[in-house]
Design goal:
The protein has ten helices and 42 strands. It is mostly beta strands. Helix 1 packs antiparallel against helix 2. Bound molecules: [4Cu:2S] cluster and dinuclear copper ion.
């Protein structure tokens, strides 16, 4: 208690300068009493001070985290770890009206064209758009591992604008990652299947199944992926895992790790080894080294084939033209992460207690020298000793690596439940390529993410450990436990890394997250003009405008042009006939910040969120006769409950 008291005394003396003796004394006594009552240690008090945000104070960083099986993206402020927003991407999100208007329904249904309506996604890796290798705060991309889709979120309004379905893969894992100027969004498939989408017996796995990586061309002006300018590369049927783009010296190259070089095909039910054994027998798998610039030149020169209407660079072409190389990587590895200077590619061992740092220069030299080693598909294999710069003995179950501004790498250790800090090639002042310290986390950490950690200039300061298990961390809420996101202070060099905060995440399993400086984000507070369509990011020509509210019948179709303002809809009474098609345009004509209205139409499964200026259109067939009340579902004023109307459907 002495130390605690001395910290508090120290604090009080700082306060004394501004507030005077009497108040400082009260603080000391009260704070010491609280600390003693709650059994807080010195480091507890420091952690509390470092994360506490007084009401009205804003966070320094914003973390975009995948929402896992919820199909969403989570927005979290740092260092307070306050949840700021949940963005609907692959799943309907009624709070945002995401998936209830016509445009959003269309986006959400992307990929549902084979007769099954997709209503969820498994988001794994968010990627902030970059300019010259730095996050620019304009766009966010996120993959859906379950269905091989990529979502595009516009950070002017934090809403999903596009979902593209991969036409030559049915699941993905190596996405989303961006190249340093966001020219390309990378999406690597995971489990190999016949890319044509047709049936092939698993006995013909080696010949008829393929691996895949897709490069989606991003058009920044349009804020959309350009489907027709995108292409995929066929890969051998190993299971490609995680990817990263080169930067600075390695710009133009892409790296993918892989598992299952055994090409094991399972069959536990027939007495064979399960995948977990069969797919991890080899001492080495293959780091895929891809010359993306060259691949895209070949595609531009017409060397791609067409599979399912999509450009695919055949494996033979990549092999013959020097687009694809392999380097051995131990053993069933996981993450691949390029250092901020672009010079090293760090692969975490997973089943090997090491991280391996490959030198980009050595890779180039080895490619120039040539190799006679090949895999069964004719892909050149560079010799391990030719391309490796260093191997760091890191600990058990290494998965993912991040970087800071002090020359350290950080690697998550799943089996040890710890984050290791280790020195890169020397700028930290420590002996190069050695572990400096480890901090325990609770428990089973997957990804970690550092402030601006994937850029050419990371910030250091904070690191978040995204833990899979939260046993004994929180009040029991039943057998499905929350995840645990732990904030670590990594601002000090050497052995000090303090866990500051545990944030329970009661929303699926966040895999990866990226942290951007808050001042790089510049979203709108209200939409720029009244009648704004968030999908087109322009005034909608069919929007309902103030003064033009009306109901018009055109045969069996009834068009409604409605405005919403505190605290009324106009019009309020709508009469249609059973069987009519109702096309309902509604615009929130408020211009004040946070003056949101909702439009909930029970029985027809509609709920919109209308932000100031926003216009939405939705439609339905009025196939249920009766009297229905619609109402504003956002508490917008004292007379919010009066913001309602009647939809009357007569026989
Ligand atoms: S993965 Cu989850 S811990 Cu899908 Cu990036 Cu490694
Ligand atoms: Cu508008 Cu409540």
């Amino acid at each position: 208690m002495k130390v605690v008291r001395s910290i508090i005394l120290g604090l009080a003396s700082i306060l004394l300068l501004s507030t005077g003796l009497a108040q400082a004394q009260i603080l000391t006594d009260e704070a010491a009493a609280v600390a003693s009552e709650r059994g807080l240690s010195e480091s507890d008090i420091l952690a509390a001070l470092k994360t506490y945000m007084p009401s009205g104070e804003l966070d320094d960083y914003v973390m975009f985290s995948s929402g896992g099986q919820s199909g969403q993206v989570l927005v979290i402020g740092l260092p307070s770890m306050r949840l700021l927003k949940v963005i609907g991407v692959f799943s309907p999100e009624s709070w945002q009206g995401w998936g209830y208007g016509t445009d959003a329904q269309e986006i959400l249904a992307s990929g549902s064209d084979n007769g099954v309506e997709l209503t969820w996604g498994d988001t794994h890796h968010p990627a902030l758009s970059e300019t010259a290798g730095d996050y620019d705060g304009q766009y966010l991309f996120i993959n859906d591992k379950a269905n091989a889709r990529v979502g595009v979120i516009d950070l002017r309004d934090f809403e999903t604008k596009q979902i593209v379905k991969n036409p030559v893969a049915n699941n993905d894992h190596g996405g989303a990652y961006v190249t340093p100027d966001t020219e390309w969004v990378i999406e690597g498939a995971q489990y190999s299947v016949p890319t044509s989408g047709t049936y092939a017996s698993i006995d013909e796995y080696n010949e008829e199944y393929q691996g895949m990586v897709t490069f989606w061309k991003f058009n920044r002006e349009q804020g959309r992926i350009d489907y027709d300018a995108s292409f995929a590369m066929e890969l051998p049927p190993y299971w490609q895992d995680i990817a990263d783009a080169g930067k600075l010296v390695s710009d133009g190259w892409v790296f993918l790790n892989s598992i299952n070089s055994e090409r094991y095909t399972g069959g536990f039910e027939e007495g064979k080894s399960p995948f977990e054994v069969g797919a991890s027998q080899n001492e080495f798998d293959y780091l895929h080294i891809i010359n993306l610039d060259k691949a895209s030149e070949l595609v531009a020169a017409g060397r791609a084939e067409t599979v399912n209407g999509f450009k695919v660079l055949p494996l033979e072409t990549s092999a013959a033209e020097g687009v694809l190389f392999f380097a051995p990587e131990p053993k069933s590895p996981h993450g691949v992460d390029v250092t901020p200077d672009g010079k090293f590619i760090v692969v975490a061992g997973k089943l090997s207690p090491t991280v391996t740092a490959y030198s980009f220069q050595k890779i180039q030299d080895a490619i120039a020298k040539g190799t006679s080693e090949q895999d069964p598909y004719g892909i050149p294999i560079l010799a391990f000793e030719d391309v490796v710069e260093a191997q760091v003995e890191i600990g058990l179950g290494p998965l993912h690596t991040q970087f800071d501004n002090q020359g350290y790498g950080y690697t998550s250790l799943f089996l040890e439940s710890a984050v290791a800090r280790w020195s890169l090639d020397g700028s930290s002042g420590e002996e190069p390529w050695t572990v400096v310290t480890k901090t325990p986390v609770n428990y089973n950490v997957g990804h970690i993410t550092a402030a601006e950690g994937d850029t050419v200039s990371p910030d250091g300061n904070y690191l978040v450990s995204l833990n899979k298990w939260s046993v004994d961390r929180f009040v029991n809420v039943g057998p499905l436990l929350p995840q645990d996101l732990q904030l670590l202070d990594i601002s000090k060099s050497g052995e000090q890394m303090q866990v500051l905060y545990d944030m329970p995440m009661g929303l699926a399993e966040p895999h990866y997250a990226q942290i951007i400086k808050a001042d790089k984000l510049n979203p709108w507070q209200v939409y720029p003009e009244t009648g704004w369509n968030p999908t087109t990011q322009a005034v909608d020509p069919i929007a309902a405008m103030p003064g033009e509210e009306r109901i018009e019948r055109d045969g069996d179709t009834v068009h409604i042009w409605m405005t919403a303002v505190r605290s009324r809809f106009n019009p309020e009474r709508i009469e249609v006939k059973k069987g009519d098609r109702v096309v309902w345009h509604v615009t929130n004509i408020e211009r004040a910040v946070d003056n949101v209205h909702g439009l909930a139409l029970p029985d027809y499964n509609i709920n919109l969120s209308l932000e100031p200026g926003e216009a939405q259109t939705f439609e339905f067939i009025a196939d249920k006769e009766g009297v229905f009340t619609y109402y504003c579902s956002e508490f917008c004023s004292a007379l919010h409950l009066e913001m309602a109307g009647y939809l009357m459907v007569s026989p």
